[in-house]
Structures are given as structure tokens and as C-alpha cells.
From TrEMBL:
Top-rank taxon, per record: Bacteria
EC numbers, comma separated: 2.2.1.1
Upper lineage: Bacteria, Bacillati, Actinomycetota, Actinomycetes, Kitasatosporales
Keywords associated with the record: Transferase
Descriptive protein name: Transketolase
Principal EC category: transferase
Keyword Transferase: yes
Amino acid sequence: MDSMRDRFAPVVTRLLDEDPRVAVVLAEVGADRFGEALRRHPDRVVNVGIREQLLVGAASGMALAGLRPVVHTFASFLVERPFEQVKLDLGHQDVGAVLVSAAASFDWPAGGYTHMAPGDVALLDTLDGWTVHVPGHPDEAETLLRHAVAAGDDKVYVRLSLQSNAARRPVDGQRFLTVREGRAGVVVAVGPMLDAVLAATEGLDATVLYATTVRPFDADALRRATATAGTDVVLVEPYLAGTSTAAANDALADVPHRVLGLGVGKAELRRYGQFDEHLAAHGLDARSLRERITRFTAGAVPAGV
């Protein structure tokens, strides 16, 4: 199976062919994947070099000129390093772009901490009006990329990862999906965490929701699920632990509830290791998730009892 990033360039190249508003802005990373697109659309494929602040600034200028820029590099260089430009050039000027990241929280451990960005979604949460897609499969990434580009002039972040679920789901760019129904707790699995959550909750009487669009947060889906499964909620996110706990608390503000946010810890892991070792170290492998979810929901009273 190809990866989400493998799917990215061909999809965006087709979008360049289909829509004269679409432009691509790169900062060297991934430029080799757009050679054919550059030949066909030299005026709408721009590589600014290793200048991430310029990457976002150039995209905002294109947006002001009426284009729909798709902006791509590693997450740490797309959200964290040029955050001032994301805040001002896009947000303050009220123009949109599609930011598409690679490397996720720690897809490339050998790259070190400079190439890790577990805080990217939490950082965007400090700004207004961002839609955030976190696909869990390459087919979902293609669907959500097309949603993002077609979203008028909105500000959209698409978070790609090498981690992938085995099967695609029918995502629509808006709602959470109900994957499993139970009566003793709700587990929200975000993007590529779904397979691990399904393995972790096998045999447990829990509802599992699948979230690939996390901003806006689907409060209605969570409320419907807790009406039958009780109000113990576990969020399993592939980025900073607790990123969505405030959104879940807001969704359930009028009912007694408990929320546990699981994700990447704040403590820096100072050894490269392998991707799976980082998952386990942060307690995001299926065995660790089962222990943590079971401990949290132990003694929970099922809904309707």
C-alpha cells in the first residue's frame, strides 16, 4: 500500500490540472515529487527553497491574488517554525490556504526532535477558524485533500502520516464515524490511531468513534454516543496528549462526565529508536492503550443502568 505522502503529489497534480485556482508552494521538501506538475504549470508550482517563513508568506500573497495555495513541508517546518506567518499572513489578513504536513509527530525518528511536531494541532488551536483533517489511510487522505482544496478560501490543515490503518473508512470531512457500539464508555480514535484502539478495546463494552476531521470537533456525535454508552470519554490522538480534551469537555458541559486524553507526552525522547518504539514509549501501542483505557473506565456505570 502506498503512503499518504505518496498519494499527495499525484492528487494535487491532478487538482492543478482540474482547477486553475490551485497553486502549490514548496520549501524544497517534496519538490522532486512535483517535477511533472512544474513542467505543466510553471506559473503555479513554486519552490521557495529552505525558507519556511517565505513559504507561508508567498502562499498568503497567492491567496490575496485569488489562488488556492496548497503548501507543503514537514509539520515542524510548516506550523511551528513559520507560526508568526501562519498567524499574521493568513489569519490576520483573513485569507486561506491548505497546509499539508508530513512527518507527523515522529514519523522520522532519525531526523531528531527538529523533525518532530506533536504540538502542531494544539498550536493551531490558538488561532481562529482552522479546519484540521487527520486521515488514517491514504484513500482518506485523498478524499480529505480534495475536500480541503474545494473548501472555498478556508484555512485548512491536513496532517499526513506514515502510520496508517489497514482499511479505509467512508470519511466526509465533517463527522465522526461510529465504528463499534457499547454501553460502558466512549473511545474517540483519531486518524491513524484507529487500528490500535480497535485492538485495545476488543471485547470491551465500549463505543468507538473514528475522527478524521478534528476541527471543528464533532460535538453532536460525541453527545449521541455518550447518551447510550455513558459519559466516560477517552480521546486517543496521534499528537500531543490532551489536545482535544477542552473540545470534549465543551461538548458535554451540561452533563457530568470524565475525559481522559491519551497521546504523545510532553517529555522529549532523546534517543532516535524506531517509530514503533516511540509509539510504545508514549503508551500508544494496543497493549498500553488497553491497560490505560481499562483502568480509566473500571467501575463505570453503563448508560441506562
